[in-house]
């Protein structure tokens, strides 16, 4: 598995063609993402970038919010704190926040552990007007800890104070020292209303996904050595919502619950994703998806037209496009034979010729489908200033849209 350097912008790529991805299918994915208000999308295979695209003027160095996808950073950081002996997730939360952090009777408050905060099973009242309020007056007893699952933000947010109380340092400082700097991430938690929200570049989110794919190690550098906690984090954490670990969402289970309801639904959370997929998910479609069996990590940042707390439908739709990326198995394509591009390999100008002498336009792309040049039948793609390697030429006429692979020598 490949790991990019922890400084600088170098990051090795794998050509989509190596995975059998069709350029027209990639274009369909990018069109869907753009139409759904995306800002950034990356797909990694075994650590190398296969697809990377930005939309709506967003730049690779721009920061974006993770929303609730950042909960997974907190879960990882709690694991590091336990690994270093600062806390135990089986301890009562009151050991770190003090008695009276809720208005529950003290004997009921004492039942709530750090593990309950990680698994959304504190039993605190989810019918209060503001689920983000962390004031004790907002944290009311409803059920014993462990007896109900509900996506309640406030108890999660208080994990920040648990970490700070246990380690005697801020969440940002501790995460930066133990995780962010060692793996080359950027970013920080910032207060947004009652929440602490992580902001970073898209590539930093992908780095965190790669750390997870490699089971808590960055290359040969161990970050999380507590294998028991790591495995608990990405497996079912309680018997109420089988599709929830420690703040991570899990695919491949027989049922799932979602934010905003106490209902249980049958089947996989993401029905068209591989069963071993797990993901970080946040409002407006902030997604970090990891599929260990395929060595895949993909991230999506952006806005979203619907107002769901976590838009799992969008995640499913993205998987539809990813599953469709591979070209059909047929090796004969009559349409492509109507068009010739030569010389191939090319050094300077490439000639595009139609057997039917069709009017056409052309566009030149890098192997990762970054647009670089366009023209029509009265001009030719000029490769003189480009580096050696593989490129794609998209040819469009009234009858056809085809793609040709071209090598530059």
Automatic annotation (TrEMBL):
GO-annotated molecular function: hydrolase activity
Keyword Hydrolase attached: yes
Keyword Hydrolase: yes
Entry-linked InterPro entries: Beta-lactam-related (IPR001466), Beta-lactam/transpept-like (IPR012338), Diverse_Enzym_Activities (IPR050789)
Keywords for this protein: Hydrolase
Ranges for domain Beta-lactamase-related: 40-300
One Pfam assignment: Beta-lactamase
Protein name: Serine hydrolase
Species for this entry: Flavobacterium piscinae
């Amino acid at each position: 598995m490949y790991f990019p350097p922890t400084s600088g912008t170098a990051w090795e790529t794998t050509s989509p063609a190596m995975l059998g991805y069709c350029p027209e299918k990639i274009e369909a994915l990018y069109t869907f993402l753009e139409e759904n208000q995306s800002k950034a999308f990356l797909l990694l295979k075994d650590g190398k970038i296969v697809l990377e695209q930005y939309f709506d003027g967003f730049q690779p160095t721009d920061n974006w919010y993770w929303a609730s996808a950042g909960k997974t950073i907190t879960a990882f950081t709690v694991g590091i704190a336990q690994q270093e002996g600062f806390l135990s997730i089986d301890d009562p939360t009151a050991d770190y926040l003090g008695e009276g952090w809720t208005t529950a009777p003290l004997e009921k408050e004492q039942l709530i552990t750090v593990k309950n905060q990680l698994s959304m099973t504190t039993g605190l009242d989810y019918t209060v007007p503001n689920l983000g309020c962390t004031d004790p007056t907002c944290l009311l007893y409803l059920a014993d800890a462990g007896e109900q699952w509900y996506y309640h933000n406030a108890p999660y947010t208080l994990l920040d104070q648990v970490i700070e109380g246990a380690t005697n340092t801020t969440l940002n400082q501790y995460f930066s020292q133990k995780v962010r700097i060692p793996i080359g991430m950027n970013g920080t938690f910032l207060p947004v209303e009652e929440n602490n929200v992580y902001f970073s570049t898209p590539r930093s989110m992908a780095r965190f996904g790669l750390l997870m794919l490699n089971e808590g190690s960055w290359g040969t550098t161990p970050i999380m050595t507590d294998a028991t906690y790591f495995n608990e984090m990405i497996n079912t954490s309680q018997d109420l919502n089988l599709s929830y670990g420690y703040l991570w969402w899990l695919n491949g289970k027989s049922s799932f619950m979602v934010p905003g309801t106490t209902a249980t639904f049958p089947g996989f959370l993401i029905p068209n994703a591989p069963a071993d997929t797990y993901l970080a998910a946040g409002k407006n479609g902030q997604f970090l998806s990891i599929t260990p069996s395929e060595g895949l990590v993909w991230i999506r940042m952006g806005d979203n037209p619907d107002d769901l707390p976590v838009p799992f439908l969008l995640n499913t739709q993205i998987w539809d496009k990813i599953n469709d990326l591979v070209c059909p198995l047929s090796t004969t394509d009559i349409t492509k034979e109507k068009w010739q591009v030569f010389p191939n390999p090319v050094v300077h100008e490439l000639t595009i010729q139609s057997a039917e002498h069709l009017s056409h336009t052309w566009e030149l792309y890098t192997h990762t489908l970054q647009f670089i040049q366009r023209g029509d039948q009265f001009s030719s793609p000029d490769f003189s200033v480009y580096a050696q390697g593989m490129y794609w030429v998209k040819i469009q006429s009234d009858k056809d849209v085809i793609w040709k692979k071209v090598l530059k020598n």
